[in-house]
Amino acid sequence: MRNERKTFLSRGWGAACVLALLSACSGGLEPLSGEEALTHLDPGGSDSSVLTSLAPEPSYAHAVDSTSTAGVLEPERALGPPDGQAAMVLNLPGAVLVLDMGEGTEGTGDLNVSYRNATLEVLTWVEFLRADKSVITTGPLRLANLGLGTHVAVVPYSEKPVPYRYVRMTGVLALYWVDAVRNMGSGGLTCGDGQLNEGETCDDANRTSGDGCSRGCQQEAGFRCEGTPSVCTDIDECAEGLGNCAAGFSCINKPGSFFCWEGVCRPPHSVCNNQCFNLSTDKENCGRCGNRCGWRDVCARGVCKTIGKLAFTLSWSRPGNGDLIVRAPGGIHYSAQNPGPEGEELFVFDDQDGKGPEVVYWAPGVEPDLGDYNICFEAKSFDPAPSHDHPVSASATYLGPWNGTTHLGSTTLTSHSRGGMECGRPTIGFVGRMTYWGRFAPESSGP
């Protein structure tokens, strides 16, 4: 008879056919006597069965959640200790049984599933859910066709001691009966109560990761936690000599860790997203990390400022002292050494140990001279010095009133520049040329 039933179910009987079988199977669903054993099934799939008894602790499923579907018949029979009365999870797509472990008795350990009369070998998955129904993790549920009686399969829970509020079981090709669901790690919710309980290495009175004490009340790498409730502070690996950076690299601390930066990241530079930026001139991190200037702005002394008719920027490939040189029509050279009168042709911000950008811009209301503007890069001081083995590349842009930000050109130097150079083609370090025609859009030409 069992082999015949296997054949019928494997052909995908629907719910109506399953209901017709209930009376024939009812004998297998009667409660067992107290002398009859419960079979414990090892999740590893071993053929050997171990006899055990279920302790009468109140750690069974507390209620059926409303997200359970009509593909589960009499789901309330899966509540409480095993009694021979079981919920039937049909072999239908979308059949879902969701059980509430109870507020205050959330699960923290493996799950014991008491089941009866599996008609086929069943492999499905149990989802462990938080109180907001988000998934913490999943575990395999293996049900063996062991004949009549109540059997127990263990679903391993890998996120101990993070508590789960709900468990969700889904339908598969074969139907199966769930008699009881028991959480083996209950005992009340302890992680997040501010007390250091067994199995916890910290408890900062919350269940949020990333602050030094994880959602499972375990001290996170790179932090030191003390007291009750735990107060977690970042370990400064650089200050404590724990950062192992190669020669020529600086140790930069960050929450929970550190990284090695080529060169020195010091004010006005700052570390943003594991990179070193000049907060005085970087328009993506102007004045502080993440403060982005508008497209018509430049970052000048850490403040986003709207430009007038024209602006130039220059960045280079590795930390060092590089200079932006702008040769205006008429032969005037604007640079860090000659920034022009403040309030008119304004600002060349000097970056002596970073990667730029340096900026020259004309203030609103100031009309730049008409004609050709040459842009050059001067490599003043780099370690190691620019060479064929250690070149330094630079890239320039201009921002005009019509075109937005436009790439002007790039250059690569293999030696330090000579001071007082004339910026123009074919000077070493020449990046590009732009012609400004007043009310018309600027034109650019490469090297």
From TrEMBL:
* The entry's keywords: Disulfide bond, Repeat, Signal
Cross-referenced InterPro entries: EGF-like_Ca-bd_dom, EGF_Ca-bd_CS, Myxo_disulph_rpt, Stig-like
Q: What is the lineage of its organism?
A: Bacteria, Pseudomonadati, Myxococcota, Myxococcia, Myxococcales
Pfam families the record matches:
Stig1
Instruction: List residues of the EGF-like calcium-binding domain.
Output: 234-277
Q: Where in this chain does the entry annotate a coiled-coil region?
A: none
Q: Where is the signal peptide?
A: none
**Protein's name according to its UniProt entry:** Myxococcus cysteine-rich repeat-containing protein
* Membrane-spanning segments: none
Q: Which SMART domains match?
A: EGF_CA
